[in-house]
Amino acid sequence: MHRFFVSPPSLDHQPVTLTGDQAHQVRRVLRMRLGDRATLLDGRGGAYEGILIAVGDADVKFQVVRRWEAEREPRTHVTLYQAVLKGERFGWALQKGTEVGVSAFVPMICERNVVDDLDAVESKREWWERIIQEAAEQCGRGRLPELGAAQLFGQAVASAPPAPRNRGETGTTPDWGAGGETGTPPDWGAGGESDSPPDWGAGGETGTPPDWGAGGKSDSPQDWGGRGAVRLIPWEGEHVTTLRDALVGCNFAAGARIQVYVGPEGGFTEAEIAQARRYGVQSVTLGPRILRAETAGVIAAALILYEAGEMN
Fold first, then answer.
1. Residue 107, domain member (yes or no)
2. What is the mean pLDDT of residues 246-266?
3. CA atoms of 305 and 260, how far apart (whole Å)
4. Could you tell me if 17 and 155 lie in one domain?
5. Cβ contacts of 13 within 8 Å, gap of 6 or more
6. What is the pTM of this model?
7. 219 vs 278, which has greater pLDDT?
8. Among the three residues 25, 46, 69, which one is the final residue of a domain in this structure?
9. Among 43-57, 73-87, 177-191, 225-239, which stretch is predicted with the lowest mean pLDDT?
């Protein structure tokens, strides 16, 4: 059956009405006839079988006859922080990422971005959301991947720090103090550069986060706790830690949350990599070959979901 994402409120009333591009697709592209069936999706995991009962000049109507929980959604939640790319490359990354199983996308502006205006990026939101929706319908997704607000790279890596090891805590960024925005680190002290972390204590290396709570065994990403996200940044300058290494011990059965940061055409600067590491983001290699900016995130997401057993 053909699939259409619809707004959840529209499913509260019978029959369900489709307008605009979706009505045009039903009427002119698919040439559906009265009595034909389609799957209507609420974007939240609910699927509804609808029978086409009316075709008008401006809309079409479906009568819902049954509901079920949509399948094909991965338990592993992958958020792709993708640097905005020129031309149609960013849309391609959204499309293929949706097909692979990415759960959320965040457009990102980095130092080497060709497109570096947040307002210009946001002006493309409607087009990008359409790409995501059409890809989700085509590949059988039950949930519509989210498209977050565009962020500067520094905001992106600072907005979701490693979760505390106490598994009951959420790991949200603290409000650093009066006048400071949430997610903005303080000036760490006299003589220190702003944005540079302190020496965390005797025997600890500068830039190494503390043991977030009693009972923690290590500072590795996979040990952040069930509510925390594993945060990875593929980088051609990383020659030791592979993506598989970074995922060792990750509890995929519980529904892991993975954040992947992918740079622009010119790649990340070393300063950006250092900044990401200060916020607990692990740099990883995706192999000996350098991937294009629009390819790296899709490949990383596919490898993560394969390791999670989501490609079986």
1. yes
2. 94
3. 12
4. no
5. none
6. 0.75
7. 278
8. 69
9. 177-191
